[in-house]
Amino acid sequence: MTLRSTLDAASPEYRERRAAMLGKLAELDAEHAKALAGGGDKYVQRHRRRGKLLARERIELLLDPDSPFLELSPLAAWGSDFPVGASVVTGIGVVEGVECLIVANDPTVRGGSSNPWTVKKSFRASDIALENRLPVINLVESGGADLPTQKEIFIPGGRMFRDLTRLSAAGVPTIALVFGNSTAGGAYIPGMCDYTVMVKERAKVFLGGPPLVKMATGEESDDESLGGAEMHARTSGLADYMAVDEHDALRLGRRIVKRLNHRKLGPGPSGPVEEPLYDAEELAGIVPEDLKVPFDPREVIARIVDGSDFDEFKPLYGASLVTGWARLHGYPIGILANAQGVLFGAEAQKAAQFIQLANQADTPLLFLHNTTGYMVGAEYEQAGIIKHGALMINAVANSKVPHLTVVMGASYGAGNYGMCGRAYDPRFLFTWPSAKSAVMGPQQLAGVLSIVARAAAEARGQAYDEDQDRGMRELVEAQIEAESLPFFLSGRLYDDGVIDPRDTRTVLGLCLSVVHNAPVRGADGYGVFRM
């Protein structure tokens, strides 16, 4: 059925919502600019004076001309003591027609050394590569661990090398293009990749540099004899190819990918790509700034799916959750979208059935969040809201088809779980700048703490300090509001990026293409459903 939009782009309400969203997008651009700036102009210029390309320039030259690059976790480390971006660029791009996961150290940020957020961001990239069977290309120039934070890096950081070997064992190719230092533990990145390219007179790969060797053994040595590209190409055999310069290394990387004979194991699009009937530009004016005000998710669906064609499932039952079938960039998809925020028992049962049907049909699922969670109260508890919520969460947790999640508005409480939040391992999760996520809303959480404190004071026979209560509420509300915002959550890698709503269709199309690198197959069975 073709969706009919009732959105009035000329209305004051729409203009107000759009203005608020554009303001948030301006803030997002400012934060992204911090990641793009790397270590700052001083270190960028120093890097250029050495005749070297920046991390994103290397990526651009590696990718097929005019092809997209889906950068992942660009706000990693936001709000921490470390630079936004976590000194590494990760993302998905097309190389010789093959979708690849690319990891590029940013040598302008403390020499490309790894801090705790670098490690977490790299782990997320490895998970994406393995789940979706994406060849991995490491663009290496790193001094290893950021030593002042080694206590947070050394133990978990070993997983980076484990992941490379597991990718290779799973038949997922791994490639290292080494442009500069790859020292200490970082030496194992080229050592554990299937293919390694080193740049002549630039790449340096060794477990211990000359100072460490001097301290450990008393031996006098130099960079080239210890770990230069020529030595590794002619003597140790670590380098499979020696490039004459950075451009040549990128050329060799592209040639390696071309010879991989990589094939997608999932099905291709089931039909032609049709643009939606409604303008994606209007997605900037749909979500209210006050998330207590509901909005119709069909207005979003109409602007992201092919031909605005959506076959709604159970439209008269559980109306607070919209479910149905569509195509997006030619790929079949099932959609679950929150309509009025609260999830009742009917919505949970409807969702569980729909998720089972999607698994039966081997169809990926898209979750569009705007939920305050499952309904509470005596009537709903007696009606079995816990059982029904558990039914939905069980279905989500044991579903095997790829899940894609977009948090448009609120994502509170167990509703975040039932709608496939980060803890439920969606293949990709993106948020809009309007999104908020926490155990509950700031006012509700502060109110709960106030009620508990008041009851405790009464139990002790003490008078309750209303002024202190008011101050506590304000502090808690401010804290929870700050910790609910998308920049904060994205900085902790609870999503794969904050995106412009107008880019949603493009981002989801790229993700659907990526997930079909791996087989797409539904679950054979589920855990026990409490009925």
Strand and helix layout:
Blueprint: H1 12-36, H2 41-49, H3 55-62, E1 69-72, E2 88-95, E3 98-105, H4 116-132, E4 136-142, H5 150-157, H6 159-169, E5 174-183, H7 188-192, E6 195-199, E7 204-206, H8 210-217, H9 223-227, H10 229-236, E8 241-243, H11 246-258, H12 298-301, E9 311-313, E10 321-328, E11 331-338, E12 342-343, H13 345-360, E13 365-371, E14 373-374, H14 378-382, H15 385-398, E15 403-412, H16 413-418, E16 428-431, E17 436-438, H17 442-459, H18 466-484, H19 486-491, H20 504-515
Parallel strand pairs: 3-4, 4-5, 5-6, 5-7, 6-8, 11-13, 12-14, 13-15, 15-16, 15-17
Antiparallel strand pairs: 1-2, 2-3, 9-10, 10-11
Helix pairs in contact: 4-6, 13-15, 17-18
Protein model, in words:
The protein has 531 residues and is of the alpha/beta class. Helices cover 41% and strands 18% of the residues. The protein is built from 20 helices and 17 strands. α4 links the parallel β3 and β4. α4 packs parallel to α6 and α17 runs antiparallel to α18. The two termini are 32 Å apart. 49% of the residues are buried. The model has no long low-confidence stretch (mean pLDDT 92).
Q: How is the biggest beta sheet arranged?
A: 8 strands, mixed
The CATH topology of the largest domain comes to 2-enoyl-CoA Hydratase, Chain A, domain 1
Q: What count of domains describes the coordinates?
A: 3
Mean pLDDT: 92
What does the overall shape look like? globular
Strand content: 15-25%
**CATH architectural name of the largest domain:** Alpha-Beta Complex
- Strand segment tally: 17
Question: Regions with pLDDT < 50 over 5+ consecutive residues?
Answer: none
Secondary structural class:
alpha/beta
End-to-end CA span: 32 Å
CATH class (first level) name of the largest domain: Alpha Beta
Tally of alpha and pi helices: 20
Query: Cα-atom Rg, whole angstroms?
Result: 25 Å
| CATH superfamily descriptor of the largest domain | 2-enoyl-CoA Hydratase, Chain A, domain 1
